[in-house]
Amino acid sequence: CFHASLGPLARRRDEEMFGLKAPKKEKRVKKENRSQPPVEAPYVPPKPKRTAKSLPDRTIDIFEGMTIAELAKRTGTAISILRDILINVGEKFDSEFDPISIDIAELVAMEVGVNVRRLHSTEGAVLEPRPAVVTVMGHVDHGKTSLLDALRQTSVAAMEAGGITQHLGAFVVKMLSGASITFLDTPGHAAFSAMRARGAAVTDIVVLVVAADDGVMPQTLEAMSHAKAANVPIVVAINKCDKSTANPERVRIQLGSEGLLLEDMGGDVQVVEVSATGKLGLDKLEEALLLQAEIMDLKARVDGPAQAYVVEAKLDRGRGPLATAIVKAGTLVCGQYVVVGAEWGRIRAIRDMLGDIAEKAGPAMPIVIEGLRGLPMAGDDIVVVDSEERARMLSAGRKKKSEKDRLRKINEERIETLDASEEVSERVEMPFIVKADVQGTVQAVTDALKSLNSPQVFVNIVHVGVGPISQSDVDLAQACGACIVGFNVRNPPSSVTQAANRANITIRLHRVIYHLLEDMGNLIVEKAPGTLETQVAGEAQVLNIFEIKGRSKLKDEDVKIAGCRVIDGRFTKSSIMRLLRSGEVVFEGSCMSLKREKQDVDAVGKGNECGLVIKDCDDFKIGDIIQCLEQVKRKPKFVSSESGAVRIEC
């Protein structure tokens, strides 16, 4: 017998009273002894977890004096990991609420693998009025540079190759009223889209130049989109109003239909009719720009470290890397350590756009900086740092981050190429080495060449650089079989040219972007393998049918000969024949025999009669049409639009 004490029995009675039941004991099942091994289940791969955004694509905002806890929250990383990174870069870690400098915050974020955007606060700083930065944009050959020349009493467009602007220029113009305005002149050709985007990013006002005799064109619409993306006000200058074919009213209607609210139509966009060659309406344009600048109340911080933006960069033979920049805020002083993109240096000299040396540069002032260790990219920000050690550290971190991003991009492109190669049967590679005079032009030529990619030819930019073509470029081209493209660079030395000729390396030099793109497009078309297409080479009508009986019923078969007259094109014996009846295909096969007047021939021309035998075909009827088919290799076409945009059509 099993005896229970009174305590557990009373506890069970209370639980049942309140509706609580004790869990029932399950029966114990004896496991079976398995003599056979377990059956292996098929492997099911786990489903990949979908993330909202991968780390390399994330961008966070950082600022001076942010705490480690705030940085950990924005990067989504544990504080312990950030602490280890801080110790590695030589910073002390006392508390997670200690403020850190903006440079250290960028280093830590790059080590984690996150992109950063620097925020600069003007709280507590003294703001002073500054000149307006005005970017002149518009379609190619609409008179942008001529308008600037009329304002500055100079001639820049005449010095450019081909009479079109191919560089991004910055000038300070002293207006008739005594006020100063900083102008940025952008190229209008379709290949220089990135230059126009950089101009819109740093500007206060965009002057949209439209020719009165030409109207709104593709680059006009692109300039409007750049200005809207940068949230910059627009002043429209209708140029060439002195020409007999000018129609400013048509331009107003076109701009209004594109969504630009002009003052004449009740909007806030000013419109000025000018003539650059006749110097008409320049005073009204100046008045409109100064009015727009006064409405915007442009002010900037003068004291403290400078914030600047690189609009162009080039390599000078005597002075080394040069960066053309516009100061946004603060004062840039000669002798300061700066980090420009992934490059660093100590400012050796600051020159204005006339080439005169200046000790410092204030807001809205275009300058040329000397003393960088390497050539920066156009569009990089200039950051002033305290010491050489900090500059080296920040530059090394940025280079490491950019190298990681470059390798990741190459890997993604390789995967895309592999996916595309499954569909395309044959695709050849066309490697290029691009050399140009300035960094912005290098980028423009590279982007234009990449736009010539097609399903048949893959344009691979092996190397880009600023400066003349050297022996190292020829050696690299020989190693990978590349074509060297030089834009606005001087002719290479005879030793380099001879070495290229011996190695059978093609060097193409150009000074005008139109000619370069046309030449490279034709070169790519020649390299393309082409696609095989079936074309009808000739047509014949069946007039009579002849039948030849076989000599032996066991060995030879009966042969039917179609007596035809060629009514179009020509027939060749090596081609494929197609038999048509009432417009429908009855049979298709190779030609076994082609005779004319009992003589074997290889081809029969239009208007002649012939007899032909199609292999395995004996279903001829009088009135049938026989087509002669031939395989033709069709090459792609190089297409250039009126706006300057180019592409390869396959």
UniProtKB/TrEMBL annotation:
Compositional bias of kind Basic residues: 22-31
Keywords from the named record: GTP-binding, Initiation factor, Mitochondrion, Nucleotide-binding, Protein biosynthesis, Transit peptide
Gene Ontology cellular-component annotations: mitochondrion
Subcellular location: Mitochondrion
All residue ranges annotated as the Tr-type G domain in the record: 129-299
One Pfam family cited in the UniProt record for this chain: GTP_EFTU
Single annotated GO MF: translation initiation factor activity
Region (Disordered): 15-53
Primary localization: mitochondrion
Domain of life from the UniProt record: Eukaryota
Known role: One of the essential components for the initiation of protein synthesis. Protects formylmethionyl-tRNA from spontaneous hydrolysis and promotes its binding to the 30S ribosomal subunits. Also involved in the hydrolysis of GTP during the formation of the 70S ribosomal complex.
Family designation: Belongs to the TRAFAC class translation factor GTPase superfamily. Classic translation factor GTPase family. IF-2 subfamily.
Name by which UniProt lists this protein: Translation initiation factor IF-2, mitochondrial
Organism: Magnolia denudata (Lily tree)
